[in-house]
Amino acid sequence: MYDERRAAGPLAGGSRRGGRPEALLAQQMSQVIAFCRDSAGRAEPARDNKSSWELFYGAHAAHVRRIALSSGVRPADLDDCCQEAWIEVVRRLAEGRYNPNCGRLTGWISVVVRNKSIDFVRGLGRRIEVSFADLDFLPAQSNLDPAVLFERKRRDEILHAALAELVRRTSTATFDALYQSSIEERDGSAVAADLGLTVEQVRYRRRRAKRSLRKLLGHRPIWLELLQD
Known about the structure:
The chain has 229 residues and is mostly helical. The chain contains eleven helices and no strands. The relative contact order is 0.09. The chain folds into two domains: 4-134, RNA polymerase sigma factor, region 2, helix turn helix motif (Rna Polymerase Sigma Factor, Chain: A, Orthogonal Bundle); 170-227, Arc Repressor Mutant, subunit A (Orthogonal Bundle). It has helices at 4-8, 22-40, 47-70, 78-94, 105-124, 132-135, 146-169, 172-183, 188-195, 199-217, 224-227.
């Protein structure tokens, strides 16, 4: 029989006899919620909050997978479904939608995951294709921890916001020179032919666009390769 307390460990919610003090459990859960709020708000989570999140995720990961399978998710789709379910858990915790006075945390997670899994199964019949941009957000199977996923999405959202602003600040040809050369990684001569420019003009416009993008990104080191001249 599934034992919620043993599976969820120190972050199951509620008090424990002979285990950690209830006040410490409450502190750890508050750190988990703080991590979720930071992740949802695209802020850098504190180290202690991230550590508590990793404990929380590890404690409940197997249970989430069992709930998804019992809700009709096929084994081949399990990783994708669990990823979406965890994102929903993070989002709801960030919004303060878990009330410890209304039931155990594990039961609350079960309801969230079950509802998301049912939606996932129904949605499979409506999915026609996934855009190439969406594929960049999906972690490898060995990296399904939502902490990793949120960090990737946070960085990607910052980059896309900066690119959207760059579109407004530069000409179409200048933006395309950067986008096609540095993001799509097309050959310079092919970009030049597509834009009706010389190769040197493409390089000049790309350098100008990169200088503007550096300012918009605040010189963040995570995109050094993209921003190098």
